[in-house]
Design brief:
GO terms for molecular function: hydrolase activity. This is Alpha/beta hydrolase fold-3 domain-containing protein. Keywords: Hydrolase. Helices cover about 25% and strands about 15% of the residues. The chain is an alpha/beta fold. It has one domain: Rossmann fold (3-Layer(aba) Sandwich), CATH 3.40.50. The strands form 2 sheets. It has an 11-stranded mixed sheet. It has a two-stranded antiparallel sheet with strand order 1-2. It starts with a strand and ends in an 11-residue tail after the last strand.
Length: about 400
């Protein structure tokens, strides 16, 4: 497990120092044998995946699948990191029309994963929403730990925004630009982090919205401390009925690979949960998977944003505060979609429809979302997938 120490930073020359103490969590090196184990595991995994991914890329370059991008471009700033570009099926490539643009960032624990993993999603979103989707790339740990991948994304994002050959809608600028950024898992962390960098945050076309999909948003808690906040359902078949998350065996090695020793774990560029509200895009949407060990930090992040100014959005129904009798009745299974074996505090109200918890003010939740695939159960109805949003209405940015 990752070793963490708490160090108190204190300015003794400040008469208010006793009131300004801040606990800083820093990354500590694990024991030597644990280092060897993590290194062997990660480099072994990458050595196995490398040839497999190369063969897949070679095969698909000769016979592109249906989800294949319209273009794959490289930029001088990062020639080793190609960018995949998806135009809507109905778009006339000979026209001068511009499009709202969504940047996506793939996941993989900061260490593995490939842009190709999201091709089908990117293609479907481009076609159904009539937007330009651009899949960004970044260097992977352990060879390239934090913040290398973050600055790769910064360089590529700036290069793409400056590329006049792409039909990016440049008619409106911040804070109402028609660009947005989305990330999956580790990519969600990077999407929220790159949005904070001064070169991106002050850019005229800075993303007006960020969407985190089952994101890793707070690394200040080691993986074994996140596991108790993961719900599970005894009614599901193995292994989904287990209190253990499959990610728990991988997460410590991913953390060791990505986070340098001595790094402050609450650095908002590493743990965007701790980012100042005004450092993030004007609109933020958070989506989590019910049976994911990362779901609770998504809920905490959304609640924190709500307390700092995000409230229930237009067209949502406010239900009583979590401490009320009705909320307790729902959480104990009196409403639809009650959960078995759930010991999570501050979790969502798992009922049908779209509801807002008044005490948190977060647009959330759950039940059945048509067409959404549950990342845990694989059900097409989306049972068990829940969304948490602030005033953000992600698709509204693309509606014209």
């Amino acid at each position: 497990m990752t070793n963490l120490t708490q160090r108190k930073q204190r300015n003794d020359t400040n008469p208010k120092a006793d009131h300004d103490k801040e606990v800083v969590l820093r990354r500590e090196p694990p024991p030597f044998l644990t280092k060897l184990m993590y290194a062997g595991y990660m480099y072994g995994l990458k050595s196995i995946l490398g040839p497999v991914l190369w063969l897949r890329d070679w095969q698909e370059s000769r016979a592109p699948p249906m989800g294949w991008p319209d273009m794959i471009k490289t930029y001088d700033c990062r020639p080793q990191l190609p960018v995949r570009i998806f135009l809507p099926r109905a778009y006339n490539k000979n026209s001068q029309a511009t499009l709202p643009t969504l940047f996506t960032i793939h996941g993989g624990g900061f260490c593995i994963g490939h842009q190709r993993d999201d091709d089908e999603w990117n293609r479907a979103f481009a076609n159904t929403q009539s937007v330009l989707v651009i899949s960004l790339n970044y260097s992977k740990a352990p060879a390239h730990p934090f913040p290398t991948g973050l600055h790769d994304l910064e360089a590529l994002l700036l290069a793409v925004l400056a590329d006049a050959s792409l039909p990016i809608d440049r008619t409106t600028t911040s804070p109402t630009s028609r660009t947005a950024i989305l990330g999956f898992s580790a990519g969600a962390n990077l999407a929220l982090s790159v949005s904070q960098l001064p070169t991106i945050h002050t850019h005229p076309l800075t993303p007006a919205a960020a969407l985190s999909v089952y994101g890793c948003l707070d690394v200040s808690y080691p993986p074994h401390e996140k596991l108790p906040n993961r719900p599970w359902k005894t009614s599901l078949p193995p292994p989904r009925n287990s209190p253990t998350d499959g990610l728990i065996s991988l997460a410590p090695a991913f953390d060791w690979s990505y986070i340098p020793y001595g790094q402050a774990l609450r650095d908002p560029l590493l743990s965007p949960h701790h980012a100042a509200r005004d450092a993030l895009p004007p609109n933020v949407c958070v989506v989590a998977a019910e049976l994911d060990m990362l779901a609770h930090e998504s809920w905490r992040f959304a609640c924190r944003l709500s307390r700092e100014g995000f409230g229930a959005g237009r067209g949502e129904r406010v239900v009583p505060d979590r401490g009320s009798a009705e909320a307790r009745w729902r959480e104990l299974g009196g409403g639809e979609g009650g959960d078995e074996g759930c010991g999570v505090e501050d979790r969502g109200v798992y009922g049908g429809g779209r509801e807002v918890v008044e005490g948190c003010g977060v647009a959330g939740v759950v039940g059945t979302w048509g067409g959404v695939v549950n990342s845990e159960t694989g059900s097409g109805a989306g049972e068990g997938v829940y969304g948490l949003a602030g005033r953000a209405r992600f698709l509204h940015l693309f509606s014209g």
